[in-house]
Amino acid sequence: MSIRGELTSFNFNLYAQLCGLLSCVLVIVLSAATAHGGIWYRVLGIIYGIIIFFIEIPIFGKLVPSGGALENIFGGKKRAWWRCFLYIGFAATMWAAVNKGNHPSGVSAWFLTMTALFYLAAGIRGDEPATSILTGGTGVQE
């Protein structure tokens, strides 16, 4: 499937993954380049960006070992629900940074919130887990 086909597939997992990758870049860049706000928010932003990188790019996600108990709790690594809650937590931290005066973090907080909403929509609709061909995934099966 092509990139255009992925964008018109109405698979919210794909939309969330692409938005998550954009969030990853923005969180790292804005956290590293911002001189405003607390240092802890900047460090957390960089850590969140690295975590998002491992979550959203399939080949790097395989480098992280996972146990059976963790899979049972979250319903698998590719489930939209736990990713939704994770992104909500990340977004809440970035919104707190904005509240403390780190205003450039608002852009990354907005994209993290959008990613959480896309994963929420995927969870509600029951979309099958899919990964974009841009990140080395299989795309949506036609």
From TrEMBL:
Pfam families: Cg6151-P. Signal peptide: none annotated. The chain crosses the membrane at residues 12-33, 39-60, 80-98, 104-122. GO terms for cellular component: membrane. Keywords: Membrane, Transmembrane, Transmembrane helix. Coiled coil: none annotated. It comes from the Eukaryota. This is Golgi apparatus membrane protein TVP18. It comes from Smittium mucronatum.
